Amino acid sequence: MAKFGKKKKGMPAVNTAALPDIVFMLLFFFMVTTVMRETELKILTPKLPSADQVKKLEKKSLVSYIYVGKAKDGTPGDKIQLNDRISSIDEIRSFIYAERAQRSEAEIPLLTTSIKADSESSVGTITDIKLELRDVNALKVNYSTVKGSAMDNIK
């Protein structure tokens, strides 16, 4: 009689046929869901003031940002940045109208204007911005702050 030897069966090889499909699916997912920075700051990064009571914004897609601070090139005075350029107080009106034109009629009452002002900014500049916003009936105004004690702002 013939002797038949038992063959050792090892672990089967891992099937990698679906691996490229998975990699491309993940790549496509991250390309679609990643949000790039919308605005490049032309002013120095504002050092936001501290506040005791802060509230997080619900829908950030309905927020228009106005940045106030010192210019990167060192020119004196407060600078206002709307979208990607340094602007003046007079251009806030057209900025708000352009933001409203991009939205549907139902979203316009929900629009919020957020002022990201440096803690060293002049109160007069902030007041001028508020008056201009009042003139165009943009009454939902948010002041961006960091959470902390209000005493942190006093020097």
TrEMBL record:
Transmembrane regions listed in the UniProt entry: 12-32
Major site of localization recorded for this protein: membrane
Compartments it resides in: Cell membrane
Pfam annotation, one family: ExbD
Annotated Gene Ontology cellular component terms: plasma membrane
Family the UniProt entry places it in: Belongs to the ExbD/TolR family.
Name by which UniProt lists this protein: Biopolymer transporter ExbD
Organism: Aureibaculum marinum
